[in-house]
């Protein structure tokens, strides 16, 4: 092989490698550039609460597709409400948030979403109203650490979740194959016993199962 040949081969494989790796590296987060590739059409979102359940998430964020499952190290799952606005929560009880705490884990689903659902997701999480703030986290997955967008409640007040909310979280955990130990922990969460209507009724097919 001539030096020129070798140079061309090197250049070609370099181009192939760099284009495939930029495609594979699903752009995880909103702010970081996008100058380099089209992968910025998508982002990764780590869900740990009601958005574990696909049917709930796609109500407002139709582009979501399952990417993988994983966990946040040194975080714990909590249920509560923000500020003074328990009323603002359609779930009639506390909803999930995360808090840094050593030696604990929060499991969840990493969803791949089109960038045009970034706004719908922020809206669902009440970012504008100050309910949740977005943050970037390192999620430990079978494929290694993955940077994802997630959300953490502002002004957290602890409060028990309603039965329908807890049910959506547990259904989502089972649907996407979170570890059984963790599912059992979720199933053991105490509720506030609320019995009226909820967002669960809007989730097609799931609401009926509840009444069987
Ligand atoms: C979690 O906490 C332990 C103990 O403080 C620390 O050694 C470890 O690096 C932490 N992991 C992450 C991902 O922050
Ligand atoms: C994620 O983890 C990597 C290495 O494990 C670290 O370099 C990086 O700063 C972390 N990013 C965040 C947002 O924590
Ligand atoms: C679909 C899409 O956004 N394609 C773009 C990918 O990036 C190249 C170069 O930046 C653009 O020319 C394409 O339009």
UniProtKB/TrEMBL annotation:
Active site: 125
Residues spanning the membrane: none
UniProt KW keywords: Lyase, Signal
Gene3D superfamilies the record matches: Gamma-glutamyl cyclotransferase-like
Stored Pfam families: AIG2_2
Binding site for substrate: 45-50, 165
Designated name of the protein: Gamma-glutamylcyclotransferase
MF GO annotations: gamma-glutamylcyclotransferase activity
Signal peptide, first to last residue: 1-24
Entry annotated with the keyword Signal: yes
Top-level lineage group: Eukaryota
């Amino acid at each position: 092989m001539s030096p020129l040949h070798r140079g061309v081969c090197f250049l070609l494989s370099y181009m192939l490698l760099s284009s495939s790796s930029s495609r594979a590296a699903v752009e995880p987060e909103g702010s970081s550039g996008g100058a380099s590739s089209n992968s910025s059409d998508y982002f990764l979102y780590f869900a740990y609460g009601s958005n574990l359940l696909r049917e709930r998430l796609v109500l407002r964020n139709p582009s979501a597709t399952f990417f993988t499952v994983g966990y946040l190290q040194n975080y714990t799952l909590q249920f509560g409400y923000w500020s003074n606005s328990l009323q603002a929560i359609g779930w009639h009880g506390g909803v999930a948030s995360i808090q840094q705490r050593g030696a604990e884990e929060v499991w969840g689903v990493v969803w791949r979403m089109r960038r045009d659902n970034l706004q719908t997701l922020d809206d669902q999480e009440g970012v504008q109203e100050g309910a949740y703030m977005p943050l970037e986290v390192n999620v430990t997955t079978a494929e290694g650490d993955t940077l994802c967008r997630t959300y953490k409640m502002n002004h957290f007040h602890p409060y028990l979740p309603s039965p329908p909310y807890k049910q959506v979280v547990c259904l989502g955990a089972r649907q996407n194959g979170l570890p059984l130990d963790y599912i059992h922990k979720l199933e053991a969460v105490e509720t506030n016993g609320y019995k009226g209507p909820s967002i669960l009724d809007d989730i097609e097919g799931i609401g009926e199962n509840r009444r069987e």
